Amino acid sequence: MILQLFSTKGGVSKTTIAINLAAEYLRQGFSVALVDGDRQGSAHTWSQRREQLDVKQPHSIQKTGRINKTLAELNEQYDFVIVDTGGFDSQEMRTGLMVADIGIIPFRPSQMDLDVIPRLYELIEGAKDFNDGLQVYGLLSLAPTNVLNTEIKNAKQKLADYPEIEMINTIIRDRKSFRDSIEYGASVIEMDDQKAKAEIQILASMIQKTMETA
Ligand SMILES: Nc1ncnc2c1ncn2[C@@H]1O[C@H](COP(=O)(O)OP(=O)(O)OP(=O)(O)O)[C@@H](O)[C@H]1O
Ligand SMILES: [Mg+2]
Questions:
Q1: What's the total number of domains in the chain?
Q2: Integer angstrom CA distances of residue 177 from 10, 181, 194
Q3: Which of 140, 179, 188 to mutate to test the pocket of ligand 1 (most atoms within 8 A of CB)?
Q4: Which of 67, 69, 88, 199 has its CA 20 to 30 A from that of 127?
């Protein structure tokens, strides 16, 4: 399965979600290729740090430009091909979506993040012209943990105006363990923060269910 994290917005947690999902699917015993399609190379750097740890490793590669053929080849060899792309419109983002099974767009619950939706529409429609089977979902991420905060509710109301982007029915919250784990090449799956771990595991299983019903 090819799973691509993308957005035309930077800093929304694409890389963080890509590497945490990779770690969770590895934990479950799946083989995982992690494709870093961002020249910044954050996901690939994380994989290199991870080699120092006694944990399961993804097959990590960096590939920019036209990545569709590489992804299709990796998809023959690995259970999951997880693709991270940069926070801007790019050839890797567009060519990845030409072969992806699932595209996930993380959104922070703020107006500036939601403002990118019209631009994303054009991108998604373009990809679907090539790739009928592409399923695209939005995911609220970096959401406040404070239950009294109204930003999540407001964002959900605004996102409901865009039915073309179906929202995954779970939320990733702003938790320090997501930041701390990266430094060591770890993920929240290997850390003590049970809440963060549960969030990633719920997301991972929802993605698997989506594929079963596709
Ligand atoms: N759920 C979270 N909780 C706390 N911090 C987070 C979370 N998700 C991401 N971060 C932090 O937010 C910052 C941006 O995350 P990340 O680099 O994953 O976003 P990105 O969308 O990949 O950004 P870019 O567009 O620059 O590639 C990082 O410092 C990361 O550690
Ligand atoms: Mg990134």
A1: 1
A2: 20, 6, 10
A3: 179
A4: 199
